[in-house]
Design brief:
By secondary structure, this protein is an alpha/beta fold. The chain contains eight helices and five strands; from the N terminus they run βααβααβαααβαβ. Residues 41-168 form the SGNH hydrolase-type esterase domain.
């Protein structure tokens, strides 16, 4: 079993990379152009960067000015950057031939050396759970929290999402013709737990849009955090299966959840909803964007 090594998104594009984000992954050694001349970002709101600021009018995909693919592009200044991520996207929206297919928009005639992918939350009922259990955007039409959690668990217990993720990644690799670009890889980002589930101060607080919204009890916070961890485990499992089909890893899992410690909702001494706390690294519905127009990446 290969030792676990440190991996940073900042290192993409370096020569002779050794990448392993999970114990047991084969180490990947290859030559690629340095620096990387182009990359592409696929996926959902976590990649689109909703709530990270906009310049001018917000587009239909609610892409943020400070989304992490945007920051990487500003830092690395690649020759080409294709920002295809869209808030609300599912695997169907990424797949070739799907509604609003991101693969259909992917231009492989320009330099592309690696891809980023954030997907799965919408396939597995994240929005339904957040709506029913936390914000209740549609009041009683939002359904019950218990039903939303139960439905999400049913989806998680099925193999369908893993199969769909494998199809998405293989379609990306096939379109780029990976056999002619042995350095090309897809980095799949996981999700971060929303809450500090151990504090007492949030038990009687609510993010509900309507009066008398659901309380952020430790039980609810724990259940929602467990859901996120289960989704990440699904992503890991699917990535293992994909890499088993190659002699070298083609897919990398980036688990950044630990970096959010201290930056979740319901942290100690925080009265939620706190719309002004910039140390919370999640977008709070109804709050200001975390980045202002005069704080654009240079």
């Amino acid at each position: 079993m290969a030792p676990e090594t440190q991996y940073s998104l900042d290192n993409l594009g370096a020569n002779h990379q050794e990448i392993s984000t999970l114990s047991g992954f084969r180490q990947l050694r290859y030559d690629r152009p340095s620096p990387a001349t182009g990359f592409v970002a696929f996926g959902d709101s976590y990649s689109a960067g909703i709530g990270t600021g906009v310049e001018g009018d917000e587009n239909d995909c609610r892409q943020g000015l400070h989304a992490y693919p945007q920051l990487m592009a500003a830092d690395r200044r690649p020759t080409t950057f294709q920002f295809l991520s869209c808030t609300g996207a599912t695997t169907s929206n990424v797949m070739a031939g799907g509604d609003g297919s991101q693969l259909g928009l992917f231009d492989v005639s320009v330099p592309v050396d690696f891809g980023l992918l954030s997907i799965g939350g919408n396939d597995l009922g994240f929005f339904e759970v957040i709506n029913a259990c936390v914000f209740r955007f549609y009041n009683f039409y939002s359904g019950t929290c218990e039903d939303a959690l139960a439905h999400s668990r049913v989806l998680l217990e099925s193999d369908e999402f893993e199969i769909r993720l494998r199809i998405v990644v293989m379609e990306i690799l096939d379109k780029i013709r990976w056999e002619k670009k042995p350095w090309f890889s897809v980095t799949v980002t996981g999700y971060a737990r929303f809450f500090n589930e151990h504090t007492d101060g949030c038990d009687n607080m609510s993010f509900g849009v309507w009066w008398n919204g659901p309380r952020l009890t430790k039980k609810l916070r724990s259940e929602m955090n467990a859901l996120v961890l289960t989704v990440n485990a699904k992503l890991r499992k699917a990535i293992y299966a994909i890499n088993d089909g190659f002699t070298e890893n083609r897919v990398i899992f980036a688990d950044y959840d630990g970096a959010f410690d201290g930056h979740r909702f319901c942290e100690p001494n925080v009265t939620e909803p706190d719309y002004d706390r910039t140390d919370t690294w999640f977008f709070l519905v109804g709050g200001l964007d975390n980045a202002r127009k005069d704080d654009e990446p240079q």
